[in-house]
Write a structure and sequence with these properties.
24 helices
Length: about 475
């Protein structure tokens, strides 16, 4: 079977390989994505010395030869060389990222996922690939250009939508446990089914994920979160045991407890619905909004209570969950700056719009929600809308109708009162200058009173009204205005 990968760069690579006397193959993701008609800008090239099986530097030699050919008539791209790994890479002017390596054979110790590497054949290189759909190679040399080398039936598995390892799966996953997360990620991204024997091997080797760095695990986890339906990968992680190890806080959500015939909903599967709803609604692909959806209910197992009168309650789960976010981000090596604070805020506030929808929607309550959410109000409302799930369609319709009322009120008050990112018109420096005082408790009392009065609609959000209230509060606190000499 011959394959036309469709870009001139492949002919350029093949011609350079012919000049220096090596065989060159496009391998892995670029071949897989060609058959899936997915756009791919990362091109991996494996090269093999025709007589000797090549050596680890042959990839560097080919990379330099291709860069020279690409640069003719213009600026030659800079080649990044990694001698210890026998690899080299460069980017083309049209945005392709090319990486070259000599064919390799790998062997692993049980304690590490870092292999011992030696020269190998193309077959050795294909044997070490994670899945059959990633083990296909296309020859780029002129005499065999486009020839597909598919020893493990990758084309068949692509057509059937199956993920399967080239070699015995227990060996594949024990050697490099990160491949278990990659299996789940590809299933989530591509909508593929993991072969039964392969999935059983993931389950059997799940604890081996402990030797993989948090950063590598999180890279795969983020790709799962950004897939069209994140729940596919997240449910697979739960089924095979990876979730309990990687995100035990989410794993704890699974299950239904029943007392006196009264049970609560399974909060894990509810969370899966919420994450998918957010993914469907969020056209921008906001990773951190999806993380907020995944973590929004993690406080529930810690505050769950049962009473004869109320049944199951989860009071305060939003505050508990928000407090847990930092520990999770730190453990997974996720960013601890604005991204984490954004997730903390959305987890903390995710119940507020829903509670407003169930109660009388007062201007004061909506102003306070706008004040606390700030620029994240739209994302919060998207999350809260996704959080409305029930097997009772009438209940869902009623909640969504009430929720629309809150959204309209938010728009009206934002246009009228300019509360989003609200800063009181009178600040602490104004108070200190007016009354000739330094930092003290009275300043906080006055600022809070002005803020509350504006949010409660008692005074308008303007400087004159706030200034008059400051003077009145100062009089009550026995502060004397500074007079000019």
């Amino acid at each position: 079977m011959d394959v036309d990968l469709g870009l001139e760069i492949y002919h350029t690579i093949g011609a350079a390989a012919d000049r220096i006397g090596v065989d060159a193959y496009a391998v892995g993701g670029v071949v897989r994505d060609h058959f899936l008609q997915r756009h791919c800008t990362d091109i991996d090239v494996v090269c093999v010395g025709k007589e000797t099986g090549g050596d680890v530097s042959i990839g560097i030699e080919l990379a330099k030869a291709v860069a020279t050919a690409v640069g003719q008539g213009g600026k030659e791209p800079k080649v990044a060389v990694f001698k210890n790994f026998g690899t080299a890479s460069f980017a083309t002017r049209d945005g392709l990222q090319l990486e070259f390596v000599g064919a390799r054979k790998e062997s692993y110790s049980h304690e590490s996922r870092k292999p011992a590497v030696e020269n190998g054949t193309l077959q050795d290189d294909q044997n070490r690939r994670d899945f059959t759909v990633n083990a296909m190679a296309v020859c780029l040399n002129a005499g065999r250009f486009g020839e597909l080398v598919d020893p493990f039936g990758g084309i068949h598995d692509l057509n059937e939508g199956i993920l399967r390892t080239p070699l015995e799966p227990n060996i594949t996953f024990s050697d490099d446990p990160l491949r278990m997360m990659r299996a789940v990620r590809f299933a989530s991204q591509l909508g593929f089914r993991i072969d039964d024997a392969t999935f059983q091997a993931i389950t059997d080797n799940a604890k081996r994920i402990g030797i993989v760095s948090s950063e590598r695990i999180t890279t795969e986890l983020n790709k799962i979160m950004l897939s069209p339906r994140p729940s596919i990968g997240l449910k697979l992680m739960m089924r095979c045991g990876l979730m309990t190890i990687v995100l035990p806080e989410v794993a704890m959500l699974q299950g239904v407890e029943t007392i006196d015939g009264r049970g609560h909903k399974d909060n894990f599967y509810h969370t899966m619905e919420v994450v998918d709803h957010v993914a469907e609604s969020d056209m921008s692909g906001n990773l951190w909004l999806r993380w907020a959806a995944l973590l929004h209910d993690i406080g529930k197992p810690h505050v769950k209570k049962y009473s004869d009168k109320q049944g199951w309650t989860f009071h305060g789960h939003e505050a508990k969950g928000s407090h847990m976010v930092k520990r999770i981000f730190r453990r997974l090596r996720l960013p601890l700056g604005g991204e984490m604070k954004y997730v903390e805020k959305l987890v903390m506030l995710h119940m507020r719009p829903i509670i407003l929808a169930e109660d009388e929607v007062t201007d004061s309550a909506v102003r306070r929600l706008l004040f606390e959410a700030g620029d994240d109000i739209d994302d919060l409302m998207l999350l809260c809308n996704a959080d409305i799930t029930s097997k009772n369609p009438d209940k869902v319709r009623r909640h969504r109708s009430n929720f629309e009322l809150v959204k309209r009120k938010l728009v009206e008050l934002e246009e009228r009162d300019r509360i989003r990112n609200f800063q009181p018109p009178v600040n602490g420096q104004d108070i200190m200058d007016t009354f000739g005082i330094g930092p003290c408790r009275e300043i906080g009392i006055i600022k809070d009173a002005i803020k509350d009065a504006i949010l409660d609609g008692k005074i308008p959000n303007d400087r004159d009204a706030a200034w008059q209230m400051m003077l009145k509060m100062a009089e009550e606190l026995d502060l004397k205005k500074v007079t000019a000499d």
